[in-house]
Specification:
31% of the residues lie in helices and 21% in strands. The protein is α+β, with helices and mostly antiparallel strands and 613 residues long. The strands form eight sheets. Strands 1, 2, 3, 4, 5, 10, 14 and 15 form an eight-stranded antiparallel sheet that branches. An eight-stranded antiparallel sheet has the order 6-7-8-9-16-13-12-11, covered by helices on one side. A three-stranded antiparallel sheet has the order 27-28-29. The termini are far apart. 54% of the residues are buried.
């Protein structure tokens, strides 16, 4: 794959936009290049992997040949259809990028339209299957090309001229005002290599209209009417795009190994379904009025966690796969040389007690949002989980942040064990299903006493990272939000004050201080954006509305030009870092927006009424 071209520098992460079909997603750069696409699903091997390497690892760029004076982009209102406008000295051109919902095959459509002209254009595509390691065999068809490599087959259909050049396919054409040229990339199933074309040519206009209709009708169900409607809508659409429609599973992000620190090793594969992230996503969607997704997720959960309760994992594949072996793609140098590039995730084998609390919390709220549809089958699953949690809640675990420095008695893990028992008790009481309530209440109260005795640090006047620790952890911001203590409890007020004073840097909240916490990994990380949104919700809960609003609107300045957020923010480089777009960031943004508008599930009221704290 030698080339005389000079390697192009990586775009900043925030220069990408998302398109998808609720089965997979692609990242489109501001420069008109699609640099990441796993096909046909989120979990598939990438066929465009320039994001984590070079052009030789696969990309597809369509842009003016001459110097671009200015580029602007937006999503077509209420959709996931991306519009990018390039202006040159001779004219202007717009490129529409979208992925229709899958029929027999999956498609990616790019429509080039002349706004002013003429504008000379150049399209260049380098398909590289298996994370950039496999060069396909490319042949011509009547209306384009087909590319085959092992199980992968892709067709490109277009009326534009095509030619081969240095193991790439190039298209050069001129677009004038009012003219349109379309490109349709189609992924075929194994065996389609026998066909000259995988199907009849795609009706591009119909594909566009159907895609637009799907997104506009879906987002019309949004019940939020507060002052941040535009960013709430964009976050909801982003979360919908991260749901694998055939199963209802929700991926944490569509990417792998975008670094938490540029040049560092904290690079993880997020194309999986964390039970925790899925639960938070479910709650955010229900707060927005989306109940079909809640039902789909409950169905996914029943299938996924079937079996013995001691076999429940913290994450699964998009259809419930359990085997997520972690390995490294040595051939990819990583985003801005941030190695390693990891596929799979070894954290899938960790014990994280908080997962049980988040699962039971979602059961509790789904029980109300779905018109009390909790059936005996769901309650049997709930009971099995609680009975297992009774035997393990006192064990140390790896915690919400999946540290690799050894298990600890993490305070947040114990709080969420309390949440699990609290929600199970409430569901049993309100549904009438038989349960050992006396025993469950005794355990719930014992956990509460233990957390208050061992998880609260007198010197800091705050809940601490783990029992005996002197360090803060942003997960303590969730205590009031899940109802462990009332928002006006002195221990909650002390925790918020301590985090503001000791865990904030340059206006953002750290997960924890990596220089003082043994997490088993070298180097540092960016500021985990969800934590700052949690602080917004806490400030609102404790009555500091002006401070909450001010911080929220400062955080909105970090959102990129099309409304997307990655996992973290590098305050020194002033850049987004981590996998992108990140469900957890958008979930927490939604939670903060709902808190400021005083709508939603009001989770902080769920548990406190039953206890004398």
């Amino acid at each position: 794959m030698s080339s005389n071209r000079k390697a192009e520098a990586h775009l900043p992460i925030e220069d990408y936009a998302l398109i998808g079909n609720c089965e997979t997603a692609a990242l489109v750069g501001r420069n008109g290049s699609i640099d990441w696409l796993c096909w046909p699903t989120f979990a598939s091997n990438a066929c465009f992997a320039k994001l984590l390497g070079t052009e030789e690892n696969g990309f597809w760029r369509i842009a003016p040949k001459e110097k671009i004076l200015r580029s602007s982009r937006r999503y077509e209102p209420h959709t996931l259809i991306l519009e990018t406008t390039h202006e040159t000295r001779n004219g202007a051109v717009q490129v529409k990028d979208f992925m229709p919902l899958r029929d027999r095959h999956a498609h990616l459509v790019r429509i080039v339209e002349g706004l002013r002209g003429p504008v000379a254009m150049r399209g260049e595509i380098a398909l590289r299957f298996d994370y950039g390691r496999a060069i396909p065999w490319v042949t011509r068809t009547d209306d384009g090309i087909k590319a085959l490599a092992g199980p992968d087959s892709v067709w490109l259909e277009t009326s534009a001229p095509l030619k081969g050049e240095d193991l790439r396919t190039v298209s050069e054409f001129t677009i004038r005002q009012g003219e349109k040229v379309s490109f349709v990339l189609t992924y075929g199933e194994y065996g389609d290599y026998r066909e000259r074309s995988p199907r009849a040519p795609v009706d591009v206009r119909n594909a566009y209209e159907e895609t637009r209709k799907f997104w506009t009708e879906w987002i019309a169900k949004n019940i939020y009417q507060g002052p941040y409607r535009e960013i709430v809508e964009r976050s909801l659409i982003t979360l919908k795009a991260l749901i694998y429609a055939p199963s209802g599973g929700i991926v944490a992000a569509p990417t792998t190994s975008l670094p938490e620190h540029i040049g560092g090793v904290r690079n993880w594969d997020y194309r999986y379904c964390w039970l925790r992230d899925a639960t938070f996503t479910l709650l955010a969607l229900m707060d927005g009025g989306y109940y079909d997704e809640a039902r789909d997720w409950m169905n996914w959960l029943r299938r996924t966690v079937a079996g013995r309760p001691d076999q429940v994992q913290i994450m699964y594949g998009i259809t419930g796969e359990r085997n997520l072996i972690e390995w490294v793609v040595e051939a990819l140098p990583g985003y801005e040389n941030s190695r390693p590039v990891r596929i799979g995730n070894a954290a899938s084998g960790q014990l994280q007690l908080d997962t049980y609390g988040e699962l039971l919390d979602s059961f509790f709220w789904a029980y109300h949002a779905l018109q009390k549809e909790t059936r005996s089958a769901e309650f049997d699953l709930l009971r099995i989980m609680i009975e297992h949690l009774e035997t393990i809640w006192q064990l140390p675990d790896e915690g919400i942040w999946e540290v690799r420095g050894g298990p600890q008695q993490f305070t947040y893990s114990k709080v969420m064990a309390w949440v699990a028992f609290d929600r199970a008790i409430k569901i049993a009481e309100r549904s009438g299903f038989e349960a050992p309530l006396k025993r469950w209440k005794k355990t719930r109260d014992a956990i509460h006493r233990q957390v208050c005795e061992k998880g609260f640090g007198g010197r800091l006047n705050s809940f601490v990272q783990h029992y005996g620790s002197k360090e803060l952890d942003a997960s303590a911001l969730l205590l009031a939000m899940v109802g462990f203590l009332p928002p006006d409890d002195p221990r909650i007020l002390g925790t918020v004050a301590a985090i503001e004073k000791h865990l904030m840097q340059e206006g953002l909240v750290m997960r924890y201080d990596t220089s003082r916490t043994r997490d088993g990994l070298p180097g540092s990380e960016g500021k985990f954006l969800a934590c700052s949104f949690w602080l917004v919700s806490n400030l609102e809960l404790i009555g500091r509305h002006a401070d909450a609003k001010r911080l929220f609107e400062q955080l909105l300045l970090l959102v990129n030009d099309v409304g997307l957020l990655s996992e973290e923010y590098d305050t020194k480089r002033k850049r987004q870092v981590g996998n992108f777009p990140q469900a957890f960031s958008h979930i927490s943004l939604l939670g903060a927006a709902f808190s400021l508008s005083h709508i939603g599930s009001r989770r902080h009221t769920a548990g406190v009424s039953d206890h004398d704290h």
